[in-house]
Amino acid sequence: MSDRNAPVPLAALVDALRRLPGVGARSAQRMAYHLLQHDPQGARMLGQSLTNAVEKLRHCAKCNTFTEVEICEVCLNPRRDATQLCVVETPADQNMIEASHSYQGLYFVLMGRLSPLEGVGPRDIRFDRLLERATDGVVNEVILATNFTTEGETTAHYLTELMRARGLRVTRLARGVPVGSELEYVDAGTIAWALMDRRAP
Amino acid sequence: MSDRNAPVPLAALVDALRRLPGVGARSAQRMAYHLLQHDPQGARMLGQSLTNAVEKLRHCAKCNTFTEVEICEVCLNPRRDATQLCVVETPADQNMIEASHSYQGLYFVLMGRLSPLEGVGPRDIRFDRLLERATDGVVNEVILATNFTTEGETTAHYLTELMRARGLRVTRLARGVPVGSELEYVDAGTIAWALMDRRAP
């Protein structure tokens, strides 16, 4: 299937597209053909926005999210509660929490999670920056909001130890039955957590 | 999930990635985070190769495939049989036929196929260029090698009428049981074709 006789710019494009996560050889080829044949304007836009994003974006000095400036808008907002620090894996997770309109504190974006299976260890995640941030003397609660996957739980466990050793108060998002769901369709592990963490109504 | 507060270069990148076929909002966001966080070099490469490919590639004046020059290598090869013209949907299909080492003729790459459901009609595919190419006085057989999907078959049917009206000899790749497969696992439609087109061993 690979195109040994493809013109160099086409072969280079297919190779570069394969660096996108979840894109294999066939998808990359299909994407290249599609862009060149049906959406050259989209290809130009994507090319420019990639170069532009890599050049202009950096990490917020406080929360580590992507930003064009030194410190992002959320961290600069004086109305946010600086005593609470919510730790998330990605900016997408932060957006979900913001969308719940139930958190007024600040964030730290890990930009990843521990994954021993994928060879992602503590050194690959900037825990040093998180520790520095969490021990600023103002933060008095670190809320762990990593995903409830194996990797997210591993990360939360590791961070709990790390934070507690520094005398920080650590909490984790509650596990339980999702709002609007029927017990019949909820997995047994979730039911077990919901029972264990049951509370007065 | 959408990031209303994302810095402009990040939002622009996510939007541009969504133009890739098969990439939705979540995948685009994941791709953007991955490139920015873990592979900025890959992002730069992809950006440059997109711009480069759109600038340098054009269509072969004879077979319509992507090429950096006026006429591609295959079309210029004097050892190819100019009396046979094989019509394929994409360069990937052409590569598969080349890999079979059983065809010495020339090609015409449609760069698409008819798809009434997706609103792709005869005007969107360059049938005019194919007709011009097929009626050069040298070609005496047009081999239709579009896919054996609904769209590919529709395209083949349409081209058969078009070519026959010009007095051209048209053939279609044989349908039948794939080499190496067990009948038990072959679909009934294929078995039906294999029976209909049965031949002396």
Distance between the termini of chain A: 61 Å
Main sheet characteristics of chain A: 4 strands, parallel
Q: Numbering strands along the chain, what is their spatial order in the largest sheet of chain A? A: 4-3-5-6
Helix content of chain A: 40-55%
CATH topology category name of the largest domain in chain A: Dna Topoisomerase Vi A Subunit, Chain: A, domain 2
Instruction: Please state the structural category of chain A.
Output: alpha/beta
- Radius of gyration of chain A using CA atoms only: 22 Å
Tally of helical runs of chain A: 8
Count of all domains of chain A: 2
CATH architecture of the largest domain in chain A: 3-Layer(aba) Sandwich
CATH class of the largest domain in chain A: Alpha Beta
What average pLDDT do the residues of chain A reach?
A: 92
Keywords:
four-stranded parallel beta sheet, Helicase, Ruva Protein, domain 3, Dna Topoisomerase Vi A Subunit, Chain: A, domain 2, Rcmb_RecR_Znf (chains A, B), Rcmb_RecR (chains A, B), 12% strand, globular, homodimer, 201 residues, two-stranded antiparallel sheet, Recombination protein RecR (chains A, B), alpha/beta
